[in-house]
Amino acid sequence: MTDRAHASAQRPHRHHWRRDVVELAALFCAVAVADAIANLVVHGPRGPILLVASAIALLVTAAFHTWWARRHSHAPPPSTPPPGDPAPPAADAAPRTAGTAGTPGPSGAAGTTTLWRMRTTVRDQPGSLAVLCTALARNGVDILTLQTHPLPEGGTVDEFLLRAPQWLPSGDLTRAVARAGGHSTWIERADAHDLVDTPTRLLGLATRTALDAAELPLALRQLLGRCTIHSIPATTLSGRPNAGADAPVEGVLEATVMRLRDPSGGAITVERPYLPFTPTEFARARALVELDARLGPRVPRSQDVLTLPEGNEITVRRADGSDLPAARAMHDRCSERTLGLRYHGPVADADRYLGHLLSPRFGRTLAATTASGKLVALGHLLWDGDETEIALLIEDDWQRRGIGSELLRRLIAMAVEAGCDSVYAVTRAANTGMVAAMRGLGLPLDYQIEEGTLVITARLDAKPVGSRLPYELPLGAAHEQQAPRRPH
What we know:
- Helix 2 runs antiparallel to helix 3, helix 6 (198-211) packs parallel to helix 8 (279-295) and helix 7 runs antiparallel to helix 8.
- A hairpin with a 5-residue loop joins strand 9 (257-261) and strand 10 (267-271).
- The protein is of the alpha+beta class.
- It is elongated.
- The two termini are 53 Å apart.
- The strands form 5 sheets. The chain has a 5-stranded antiparallel β-sheet, sandwiched between helices.
- The protein is built from 13 helices and 18 strands.
- The relative contact order is 0.08.
- The protein has helices at residues 4-10, 17-43, 47-71, 128-138, 170-179, 198-211, 216-224, 279-295, 324-333, 336-343, 354-357, 403-417, 432-439; strands at 103-104, 110-111, 113-122, 142-150, 156-165, 183-189, 228-232, 252-254, 257-261, 267-271, 303-307, 313-318, 363-369, 375-384, 387-394, 422-428, 445-450, 453-459.
């Protein structure tokens, strides 16, 4: 949003001294002529003729002054563009020149542009937003969208989507905003997805939430920007009430912390350390949570059948809390060694973690079942703050058949789709099957061994890791969620 015409209209008019000198000279001439005519009329025999000549002289003077005023108006003189620069556009074209592709940089060379999301707080008084927009226009910045969030204590939070010249660093942009009266400014890179208007984006998030309960945390993250989401269960793994899960029904908004009641039990805490939440954002987040509560538990029931190299068919699908009895039965069929490699703790406590692992609030789970419906493998993608953990459990009789590698590749694909930079797996050095599966991904791996525990971190590239089998499981957008690093 540029304001070149507006800035030109507000530019102070330049005062020309030559016009003043001409007008003063004309005034002196008129006085002298009038005095001479008065003397001739009084003392001369041709008084009437002189009066007529004086009238004609005054009319000529008035006509000359009118012509002079029109020729030398108060409009500022046109500026001459520097050599090599394009001519200024016509005023009636109303161009959006600032920030578009090809904007000349400091060196005069044409360059590309960069999209930014910026939020700043301004005083709630007339003209404050105009001053801010003028400061952005002076730096060649184009305002694509603008949202205003009123604050209860006064002032407003203005959220912009900006297109700025690529040569303009974010530091110069925030300093220009600060000089224009903005404070508590936050800025980050944007992409083409941010060009979608707010109502359309909210409807899309509501639709995703309605189709899959696991989408609520991701929808909240995309709605509120860069933040950390904690899902706090109503009870601990030992069955005791969780002290952090006591959010009131109406929710709480405390500057950079937002607490909402989780429809599945417990509480959802959203933290954004450097950017306070606004009442508008709180109302939008609470509306999504209320939608999730009204629709109840739901998971997409899409599934795919894969054929193992030996000829057996295995069905891969999403798992949720309804698979808890089948998962416990699989635990009973697994050996202590298999459970120990997976949970790194007392084998007797393995069943405690299943409720947490199958909850859509802490990640996503893929289940592999036989043609008879028996659950034989689980693959987990768990959100651990800014990191992501992957874990596998394969029943003993179904190991070394390619199921683990296939689940692992699908989990990696979901992590890439969710925008994760890396994933890690916690296992033991003796778990050669997991190590081989991680190596089979073809990704850069980092290894860290501490007291017999092996942590393998895979750095993800821009492309999802494809399946080796002749089909692909439809993958929905994964959500980001805070979960304990080792729930086992």
